[in-house]
Amino acid sequence: MSDSLNDSNAPSNLLNVGCGQRFHNAWTNIDLESTDPRVQQYDITKGLPFKDQQYDAVYHSHVLEHLDPADGERLLDDCYRVLKPGGILRIVIPNLEQIATLYLENHRQAWDGDQTAAMNYDWIKLELLDQLVRSHSGGRMGQYMAGDELSNSEFVESRVGDEFSRCQNFEQNRPAQKNPNVGERIKASFKQAKKQFTRWIVRRLMGKDALKSFDEGLFRNQGEIHRWMYDRHSLRTLCQSRGFVDFTVQSATGSFIEGYETFELDAVDGNVRKPDSLFVECRRPNEKFQKESTQERSAA
């Protein structure tokens, strides 16, 4: 990924939705929060703020699973809208099929007494459930990876890629915090005061259990948890229901998007960033296909 700073408003025919910290100057990059001038801040649950048929390709990685199914459908509908006819949608999500397969394999071997499989089973069960149910940041997966000595560290790293080293060395590699300006400090202070006052009201009126539920609800709405999971079959069904065609399972570097590997969004120097992922692509039909499909549906 280039370190040079291009004009964030420069025209691009490529859109990266929910980019986080991984983006490229050749793309239009948007996310809920922006920590870089090259990323436009926007809440995608309000719809994509772009014109119809504006982009040749739309990409989102580990975004769809954070939306409830209805919001996920709306996101795909909006991706379809902003894509040009024949445009490519690339989706990256946690691979439920792969997780389930590893869960069953390690469960069976652990039951038969394999101690290595028993440790791997502990991890893969967390991988299956933790981000669906956690009530605090990082959850049990974060606690597991932060452990001093992991006997199955190689297996865990093979599942989560560069997230493993980041979690292991979080304190040493914590990014330097920028000093916020006066306006940002006032805004943050007001937000924190508002939260604490609301917590006080909840506790006074409803008690400790209600306060615990309130805090958990706040956390679960911050975007960290998974609200749904997909495998290749359910995702293909979903994409086809929104009008996409040519659904194809890809690798981290394989793509119909021209020059995709050079953007290093899913792999860096051949190393897959999120090995637990399912990589897929599909297309918005071209105009000829759309007309033919419409005629076929009318005839039926």
Structure description:
With 300 residues, the chain is an alpha/beta fold. The chain has 3 domains: 14-94 and 231-299, Rossmann fold (3-Layer(aba) Sandwich); 97-168, no CATH class; 182-220. The protein is built from 10 helices and 9 strands. A 7-stranded mixed sheet has the order 3-2-1-4-5-9-6. The longest helix is centred in the middle third of the chain and has 25 residues, at 182-206. The model is unreliable at 1-10 and 171-177 (pLDDT under 50).
β-strand number? 9
Largest sheet: 7 strands, mixed
Give average pLDDT, whole number.
85
- SS strand fraction: 15-25%
Task: Describe this structure in a few short sentences.
With 300 residues, this protein is an alpha/beta fold. The chain has helices at 69-82, 96-111, 115-133, 139-145, 153-160, 162-168, 182-206, 208-220, 232-241, 287-299; strands at 14-17, 28-31, 39-41, 55-61, 83-94, 245-250, 267-268, 271-272, 277-283.
